[in-house]
Amino acid sequence: ALLQRPALPTDGHALVDEGTMALVAALGYTTTDDWTTTAPHPLEPGGRPNPLERRAELNAYWRATELVAQDRRADAKPLLEGIFAENPANVQALDLLAEVLIAGGEHDRAAEVLRERLRHPPERIRTHDRLATCYEVLTDRERAKLHHRRALELLLLAHTRRGEHREADRVRELIRATE
Asked: What span, in angstroms and rounded, lies between the C-alpha atoms of 76 and 104?
């Protein structure tokens, strides 16, 4: 039976069409910004950071998560700030840094970190919810309302996609109440 199966072409990476490339990019897996019909070979460098070169960053992040779990946020903060300074696209570190800053009452700085977080996919309910909290504390009611509403819109989308109609209806009512 194995002999009857067709062999995969050795140049299979070159057979990907533009629609598939767009879908892969939307999922965050693209390795090139060149939208030709030829995908890069899987073993060619793709411009993304090499995980082996990011070991120190990863170790700092895991150490920071340990410190936060031990309720030692002040000790975690410099590690997370260092990651943010070196790699502002590290969304996990941005999320954790924002949590640490909010817990420490640094809402101005947390809002700055969360605004940077919004620049990197995926868009998250928690990011908007935390931004709304920061803006409430900073007495910027309009921005707080904007981010609360966006958090509710994302929650509605999540419930709708999962087919959770009762929960989606409840969130729709909350959105109507905030208008």
From this structure: 12
> What digits encode the pLDDT tens for the residues 79-99?
999 999 988 888 999 999 999
Number of H helices, E strands in the chain: 8, 0
Token pair 């109507």 in the structure block, residue: 176
For residue 85, the tally of other CB atoms under 10 A from its CB is 8
Q: What is the mean pLDDT of residues 39-64?
A: 73
pTM of the model: 0.69
Tell me, rounded to whole angstroms, the distance of Cα 65 from its chain centroid. 17
Q: Would you say 79 and 67 are in contact if contact means Cβ atoms under 8 Å apart?
A: yes
Q: Any residues with CB less than 8 A from the CB of 151 and at least 6 apart, and which?
A: 125, 126, 128, 129, 132
Residues composing the chain: 179
Q: Which residue has the tokens 């936060």?
A: 68
Show the tokens assigned to 16.
Answer: 């990907």
Return the amino acid letter for 6: P
- Cα Rg for the chain, rounded, in angstroms? 21
Percent of the chain with pLDDT over 90: 59
